[in-house]
Amino acid sequence: MSDVKVTYFNGRGLGEVIRYLLKYGNIGFEDIRIDQDDWPTLKESTPFGQLPLYEENGKVTAQSVAIARYIAKKVNLAGDDEWQNLEIDTIVDTITDVRLKLYPLYYESDTEKKESLKQTLLAETVPYYFERFEKYITKNNGYLVANKLTWADVYLAVSLDLFFVFLGENVLEKYETLSSLKKKVEELPGIQEWIASRPETSF
Amino acid sequence: MSDVKVTYFNGRGLGEVIRYLLKYGNIGFEDIRIDQDDWPTLKESTPFGQLPLYEENGKVTAQSVAIARYIAKKVNLAGDDEWQNLEIDTIVDTITDVRLKLYPLYYESDTEKKESLKQTLLAETVPYYFERFEKYITKNNGYLVANKLTWADVYLAVSLDLFFVFLGENVLEKYETLSSLKKKVEELPGIQEWIASRPETSF
Question: Of A140, A151, B92, B192, which has the fewest beta carbons less than 10 angstroms from its beta carbon?
Answer without folding.
Answer: B192
